[in-house]
Batch of 3 targets.
Target 1
Amino acid sequence: MKSRGIMLIMCFTLIACSDQRDADVEPGNQPTTNASPVAAVDDNDVTPFVLTDVTEASGLQFTMTSGRMPSTQILEVKGGGIGLIDYDNDGDLDVFVPNGATLDDPTNGPGCRLFENEGDLTFRDASVDAGITLRRWAIGVTVADVDNDGFDDLYVTCYGPNALLRNTGDGRFEDVTDSAGVGHPGWSTASSFGDIDADGDLDLYVVNYLEFDVNAPPPKTTFLGTEVFAGPRGLPGASDALYRNRGDGTFEDITAPSGVADVPPSYGLGAIMLDFDRDGRTDIYVGNDSMRNFLFTAQDDGTFRDVGGISGIGSDGGGANQATMGIAIADVDGNGLPDVLTTNFASDTNTLHLNADGRFFDDGTKRYGLGMISRPYLGWACGLYDFDHDGDEDVLILNGHVYPHASMSLMNSDYLQPPLLFERESNRFVRVLPDDARPWLDARHCDRGAAFGDLDGDGDIDVVVTELNGPIRVLRNDGASGAWLMIEPEQPLGCEITVTVGETMLRRWIVSGTSFLSSSEQAAHVAWRTGEDQVRIDVTWPDGETATMHDVSANQRVRVSRPGQSARGR
Amino acid sequence: MRIPATILVLCLIVATTGCGGDDDDTAAAPLTTGGDSVETPVAVDSSTPADAASAWSWPDDIVIAMAHIGQQEFEPAQSIVDAYRAAHPDDPAGTFCAGLILHKQKQYADALPLLEDGWMPGRNDGALHFIGWCRYYLGDLNGAIEAFDAHLDVDQFAVDSLYGSGIAILEKGEPLVARLRFQDAINRDKRKHGGESSPAVAKAYLRLGEMDLADGQYDQAIDNLTQCLLLDERLVPAYFALSQVYARTGDEDQAEHYRAQYEAMQAQRESTGGIQP
C-alpha cells in the first residue's frame, strides 16, 4: 500500500489460553504480539489489485540463469524459484535466489544470491557477506528452521547434489549438506518441510524430476507437429526422497521404509506437507508433471500410503492425468479443510481439488470458474491470498510456455504470457482484466517462480516473481484496504490458523512447498472489511498443541509462541 | 484415392449439421474426437433450414477433402483445400473446410476465423457447432454459448450443440442450467431417433453423473454413469467417476472393479496435458 496509514501504537489486553496436550503453559511462554498495529487503509483510497513494479527502485535487479535462450533441453526450461527469508531476524523479509547455470558447465554457474531487505523495500546483495557460494545449477529453495535455533535455514534443490545451508545466526550460512546427509544427487526440483513424526523438528521431502545427462541429451521429438526438445515423457522418471530429522543436525533417509517409494518413479515438480484429513498426522501431496499426482497419507505405524488415485486428487475430475507445476492451498469452499489448486500445462486447465471430507476430493474447477479460462496458459507459480483485503482469497497465477516457438497458431498457447488474477466473488473466481490502473496484468513474460509475502511491512501481500532467464520482478501491493493480521506462530510449518471475525471464520495453513520451486513468507495473512476490530485467533500445531488469543486488534503482526515450548525442551 | 460413398454422405452431414462429441475432455481410447466424430451418423432433419438450400451443393473438391478429414488424413485434405481456395478465393466452402482441418487438429485459434468466415447460413449451419467448440477451447464461454445456441436456433435436434452449451454453462458456474441442457439433449435425441444414439448423449449422461457425484447423489450418479457406458463404453471418465462413487459409498469391490477398468483404459488414453505428447 503506497498510502500507508499512520502507525499507531496500540496497547491491548491479550488473553491467551492454551489447550496443549503434553505441557502446561509457563509464564513467559504465552502467545505474544509485537504490539505495533498499523492503521488500515481507507477503502475509498484504493483501487484493488494494483501491484506496482518497484524492481528498479528496490535495487533487487538481478537476471537469473537457466541455461541459454532459446532453450534447447528440458533442463533449461524449469527456470528457478525464489525464497523469502528473514535470515537476520530483523523483522523484514530478505530474498534468496537459487540461480541456475548453463548446459556446458552445470556445476559452475553465476551462483545463488541473497538480497538483504534494508527495511524500506530496498535490497542490497548480501551474498558475499552471508557466505553464499553455491554455484551449481540451483532450481528451487525452501526456507525452514531445520535445527530449531530460531534462525531460518535454506534447502536448495539442484541439478546435482542439493544443499542445506545452515543459518549460523550471525548473518552467515554454512553448508552442512554432507554432515546432515541430505545432499540428494540427481535432478531435484522442489522440497518441503514438515513434522511427520510429531517430534518437534522438521522432516524433509525432496522432489526429483527425471534422469538427465547433459553430456548425453536425448534426441528431439515432436509436439503438435513441431520439433521440440525431449521430455519428460520418454525419459526415465526419478524417485523422490524422504528424510527424518534426527534432531541432532543429521537426517535419516527413510524413503524406502516410509512407503513413499512404493510408487513408480515420477516427474515431480512440487510437494507440500500438511494434515489433509485432520487426523493429527502430516500427509504429503506431490505434484507430478505428465502423470498422476500422489497423496501420501500418514498411517498408524508411521508409514505412508499413496491414495492419490482413490481420493480423486491424483488427476482431474475426469480421471485425466495432468502436468502439475504449481500448488496453492486454501479453504476455498469454506468447509474448514485445505483445498488444493494446481497449475498445469497449456491446452489443459488448472485444477481446483476441493477437499470433501479429508478422504475424497472433488474437482471444483468448473464450478469456481477456473477452468477453460486458463487453457491457453501454461501455469507455474500460484498463490491463494487475499490481495485486496476483502475477506477472501484471490488467485494469482504466473504463466509462460516452455517451447520457444510456442504460439497460438502452433500450440494454442503463446510463449510469453500474462499473469492470471482472479478475484473471489461469492462462489466464483472472476478474472481481473488489465486496465490503466493494472498494467501489470497485461505484461507478458515467461514466468516461473513466485514468492508471496509482506515485503514492505504494511500488512498486505507483495509478490516477487522469477522469469526464465529474465530479471526478477518485485511487485508491491498498492491495492489493499481493510483490516488485516499477519500471524506468525513459532515453528510455523504445518500450523492451522483460524481467525474468528464476528461470525466469520477465516482459516489458513502455513505450508512449505507452495507456489513453484519457491518459498513464501511463513505467516498466516488474513483480512476483512466487516468493521470488527477485535478478533480471536486459534493456532493448532501439527502435533495437536493449540493456542488461543482473544480480543486481538487488527492491523498488526502477531507472534504466537508455543505454550509448551520450554516444557518440551525446545 | 477412391472415397467410399458412405463417408462422402457422412461428411456432408457433418458439414451441415455438426457432430457430437467434440470436447476432448472426455476423450476415450481411441479418441472419440477428431475423425471418429466425423463418421458419426447424424441425420439431417428435413425441417431444418438446411433444406432450404437444397439447390446448392458442395463443390466436388471440398467433398473429397472432407472425406480425407473424416479419415484424419489432414495433409491430402489440406492440399486439396489450398488448391481450391487459390482457385476460388471468395468461396466460403473452401474457407470452412480449411477451418475444419485445423479444428480437427485442435488448432483452435487459427481454425476459428476460418470457420466464422466459412459459415454460410442455411447451407452449413453445422459450422456453428465447430465455432462453438473453438470458442470454448479458447476460453470464450459466452461466445461458445452464442454459437451453440445459434446452431440450435436453426436445428432443434442439434443435440451436440445443446450438449456443448451445457458444458460452457457449467463452466460459467450455472450447474442447474447446465443440468437442464444435458437432460434436454437426452430428451431431444430420444424424440429425434426414438432411441439414444448421438455421441453427445452419452456425454450428457456422463456430465449428469459427474454432477450427481459432486452433489452426493450417489444412486443417481450410478444410474447416469452406467447409462453413459451403455451408450459409449470408451468414455474413460465414466469409469473413473464410477470408481469414485462406489468408493464413497463404501462398496470397495465395485470401486476396485471400475478403478481397474479406468486404469487399463487410462494407460492407453492420450493425455491432454503434459509437456510431451
Target 2
Amino acid sequence: MTASPSTLTMFRWMVRRDLILAWRRRADVLSTVFFFVIVVSLFPLSIGPETQLLRSIAPGVVWVAALLASMLSLGRLFANDYQDGTLEQMLLTPQPLYLIVLAKVLASWLVAGVPLALIAPVLGVQFGLSQDTLLILTVSLMLGTPVLSLIGSIGAALTLGLRGGGVLIAILVLPLYIPVLVFGAGAVDASIIGVSPQANLSLLGAVLAIALVFSPWATSAALRISLE
Amino acid sequence: MTKRKFNWYKYASPANFYPLAGKMIPWFAIPAAILFIVGLYVGFFVAPTDAQQGEVYRIIFIHVPAAWMGMFLYILLAVYAGIGWAFNARLSAMMASSISITGAMFTFLSLITGSLWGKPTWGTWWVWDARMTSTLILMFLYIGFISLQSAIDDPRRADRAGAVLALVGVINIPIIYFSVQWWNTLHQGATIRILNKPTMAPPMLAAMLIMLAACWLYSIAIVLYRLRFIIVERERGAAQVAAATAGI
C-alpha cells in the first residue's frame, strides 16, 4: 500500500484538479461573468441615465449582482462530483475533509469570484464612479467574494441532491450574505461620499477571517450529512 | 423544557414522550388562555392611555411579546437542533422542527403588528430601522430552516441538515444584527427613532409581562401539540402502541 500524500500536496492537487475541470467547461465560468455584467447593465435601463442617481445606486447594484452571480456557481461546487461518485471517495480519503472543502472553495472562488472583482471596475465606469472608488470596489469584492464562496459552500453541501436545489440554496444562503453586502457596499458608498472606507474594509476582512475558520467545518459536516 | 425533570433516558424516546406530552399540554394551554384573557383585560381596560401615542400604543401588548418570542424561539430551536445532532436524539430534532413553525409565526406577527403600529404613529407602514430589518432577516432565517427541512424527504437527514443551518444562523445573528445597525446609522435616511420610549406606567409593564408569560405558555403548549403529530408521522407504530397503553 502506498503512503498517502501529504495534506499540502493533496490540497494543491485538489485546487489544480478543480481549476482544470473549470477550464474544460469555460462556458460555465463565462456565463457567470456575463450574468453579472447583464444584471448590472439592466439597472441604468430601468432607472434612467441620470449620472447622479446612477452613482449613488452603483455600490448596491454591483454588490447585489455579485451576490446573485455567485449563487449561480454554487450549484456546480459539489454537484458534479456528487453525481459521479467522486465526492464519496473524497470523504473516504485519510486527508481531512476540511482541507478538501477549502481547496474546492478556493478553486471555485478563483474561477467565479475573482473574475467578478476584475470586471467590476468596467461596470463602475458605466455608473460614473471615480478612479479611487473603482479601486475600492475591486478591493471590497476581492475581500467579499471569498466569503460568498465560503458561506455558499455550506448551502451547496446542505442542498446536495435535493429537488429544487437551486432556489433552495438562494433562500438559505442569501440571508447569511447580508453582512458581506452591508460592509462591501458600505465601503464603496463611503468612498463615493468621501469618507474613509477603511472601517468597512476591515470589517469585511474580519468576516472573511471568521468565515475562513468556521465555514469549511460546517460544509464538511453538511457533506457528511448529505452523503450518509 | 419540563421534560428534563423526568427520567432523561425514558422520555428521550419519542414513543414514551408522546403520552407525556399529551398530559402536559393542558397544564400549559389552560394557564396560557387565562393569562391571555387577564393580559388583554389589563392591557385594554386597566393600563392608562399613553400621553403621546394615544390608544394606538396598546398594540405593543402583543407586538413586544411576539418580537421577543421570535428571537428566543430561534435560539431555543438552535439549542434543540444542536442537541439532536450532537447526541443523535430524535426527540430534540423533532422539537426543533416543531418550534420552527411557532417561531416563524411569532416573528411574522411582530412584523405585522409593528407595521400596524407604525402607520398611525410614524405615518408609514415600514421603516428600514435596524430592529425591524433584523427581525425581517430573522424571518428569512426561519423560512430557510423550514424550506430546507421540507425539501428533504429523509427525516434523519432533514434533522441534521436543519441543525447545521440553525447553528450557522445562530453564529450569524450577532454579525447580522451589528451590520444592520451600523448600516442604518450610515444611511440615516429615516429620522424616526424607535427608542424614544417614555418610562412605562406599572399597569402597562404588568400587561406586557402577563402577555409575555401567556405567549411562552402558548408556545410550549402548541409546540408539544405539534410535536405529537410529528412523532405520529415519523414513528407511527411505536407511538400508537404507547398511546394505546397509556390510554390517551
Target 3
Amino acid sequence: MLIRKPSSIPSSAITPKDQYVNRRRFLRGALTGAAAAGAAALGAERLAEVLSPRIRAFAGTRLQTVKSPLTTTGEQLASFEDITHYNNFYEFGVQKSDPAQNAGGLPTRPWTVRVEGLVKKPKTFDIEALLKLRPLEDRVYRHRCVEAWSMVIPWVGYSLSEFLKQCDPLSSAKYVQFLSYYDKHVEKWASETTINWPYSEGLRMDEAMNPLTLLTFGLYGEVLPNQDGAPVRIVVPWKYGFKSAKSIVAVRFLDKEPPTTWNDQAPNEYGFYSNVNPSVDHPRWSQKTERRIGLPFWQQRRTTLMFNGYGQEVASLYKGMDLRKNF
Amino acid sequence: MKHSTVVFLKVLTWLVCLGPVAWLVWGAVTNTLGPDPTATITFTTGLTTLRLLTVILAITPIRRLIPKLGWLIRFRRLLGLFAFFYASLHLMTWVALYAGFDLNAMASDVLKRRFITVGMAAWLLMLPLAATSTNWAIRKLGGKRWNRLHKLVYAAAVCGVIHYWWQVKTGVLTPMTITIVVAVLLLARPVLALAQRRRARPVAA
C-alpha cells in the first residue's frame, strides 16, 4: 500500500510533467538546430542519431502493479523529489544533484539485457519482454547507503530469481555479475573520477536468488526516472546501496567472484559482500548510525539495523561466515 | 587609504563572510537545506573554511606582486578569525550531529579515522592563531615570534586539504581545484622570495 504523506512533497517542488517533457522537446530541437549548423563537422552516423534521437521521456509513465507480501511496512516514505534528486550515479556526475540534471540523455529505448557466461545458451532479453515476464509488485524497502544515509523507497519490480530462472544457468554458476550501461559520449561526467567503467556489481547465486532481491523497473508506481537507474536495475535491500547496480545491460553467470567497481577502487573500504552491518565500521566513519534523508538535521540520526532490518529473511545466507572478514 | 573606505570595505567583508552561515541558518529554519541537511551543513562550513584560508594565503603574494595593494593586510586578521569561526562550526557539526556529544565516539573517531585526525589537527593548529590575534598578544609575543607562530597557517591549510582528500571516495577528484590553488599560493612564497633576491643582487661588472 502506498501511503503518500501529503506534506512531505510540496507541489511546488515537483516539475509538472508537461514542463519537463517540453524541456526535452526544446533540447531536442536545439540539438537538431546545432546539428544542422555544424553538419559539416559531424560524421553521418552521429548526425543521423542527433536528428532522430533515441532519447524519449518514458519516466513518469504509470505502471500496473500488484501488492506484495515482501513489502516493508511502518516506515515513512522518502519523497519522490528526494529519491529523484539525491542520487549516486557517478556516470552522470559525482554530486548528488548531478544525475537528475544530466541523466536525461540516457537512451532507455530500445534497451536489451544480455545474458552470458555459464548458461546453456547466451540470450538477449528486450526490456518490453522483461516488463511482462512477471506481474510488477509494489515493494517498499529501506535503502542504506554506505555513506551512512538512508531512505525508504517504494520500488516496483519482481524478484530477480524469476528472471534468473529464465536464463538457464549451468550448475557450475556460483556468482552472477551485473554490468551497467556505459557510453562516454552520453555519460561524459564519468571522467570526473578514476573509475574503470562500466560499473560492475555482483552477488553470490543464493543472494541473487533470495526473493528480496528485486529486479526493479519503477518507483512510486511509475517508470524509473533515468537518474534512478532506468530502465531496469537491481535492488538488494540488505546491502549497501552501491551493490544495487543501475541501468543494467548484461547479466553474467560465473564460477568465481566477479570484479566489482567499488571493491576495485578501495578493497579495504568496500567488500564484495557489503551487507549493512552496524558492527563493522567503514574505515572512515562509523556504520552504527545513519542519517534519514528528508528530515530536519536534528531528527536525521537513527540506529542502523543489522542487514538493514532484513535479518529474518537473509541472515541464514551467511551462517558460519565471519562477517568482519567478509565485510 | 581613506578611513571611510576602510570602514566600508570592512563592513563588506563582514557581510560576505557571514553569508554562508546566514544561508545555513535560513535553510535550517525553512527546512530548505536539501535532502540531507546534516551533510549540507558539514560541507558548507568545511568548504568555507578552506576558501577563507586560500584568500588569506593569497594576500602576501598579491602584496609582493602589486605593492599598491599593500592595504590588503588590514583585512587578514578579520578573515583569519572568520576562517577559525567556520572551522569551529565544522567541528561542532561533527561533535553534535555525527558523534551526538558522545565522548567515546569522538575519541574513537579521532584515533581510528585519519581524515578526522588530520581535520582535528587543522583546527588545533588554528586555535593558537585565533587566540593570539589581538594587538596585545602581538606586543606581548613580539613581532618576530608572533610572525613565526603564525606560519602555522600553512600547516593548517595543508591539513585542511588532506582532510578533504581523505574524506571523499577514492577516485573522486572534487578537491583538485582547491588543492591546486593552495599549492600555487604556497609555492608562490619561495618563488617570489627567490625572484626578489635575484633583483637585489648587484649585477657583476
